[in-house]
Known about the structure:
Number of helices: 8
Strand order of the largest sheet: 1-2
Distance between the termini: 56 Å
Radius of gyration: 28 Å
Order of helices and strands: HHHHEEHHHH
Structural class: mainly alpha
Strand content: under 5%
Amino acid sequence: MSPSALVATSHSYPRLQILFHWLSVLLMASLALAGGLRHVLVKHAFIEMRSVMIVHIGCGMALLFLTLLRAVTRLASPALPPLPGSSRAQRACALAAHLAIYGFILVSCLLGWIIVNAKGLAIPMPLLGFEFPRLVAADPALVVATVRLHDWLGWACYSLLAIHIAAAIWHHVALKDDTLRRMSWRRRVPDPAPAVTDCHRCSPDTEAQNESLTPSDRLAS
């Protein structure tokens, strides 16, 4: 891995954080489709319930550990400077929203893991040749108690993500700041400062005049 992947600039997050962010977006979208539309998909025979749940559980486990990696990477990287014009209240709200999203994702994914185990099932990883450890024993009562909470946390997380997306679009379109561009894969290079030049010395007319001056006159000019 290139060291630059872990380095932030004043205008962009580190590339590793950007990669983790957009992978999380893809996993969250897959979770929403597989979880929220599973009954519709199965009812119309587009896909079997088992296949839908494999996708849902697999994406949930991937998102769980990816979120942990994101948190570690975020803590290990220096914070970006605040955007010009942003108030302390705005920064506090943004931080609270990010922490809440992280918390909802971690708790919801852990609850999903518990639900699968409480149904008496394991979560295998056939491609890697192992299965995740069972957090709890089979317990139908625990399934009933946790499924509703898992659903509520999921919808709360999706609602908060919708607000997060709307805020990013508002910053980009209305405020025209770098909030969204900071998470872009393409590095934004700051505009170079205008060079300070001596017009008297650099203009063509002045150069022509200087050629006709004696050395002592040039030093005095």
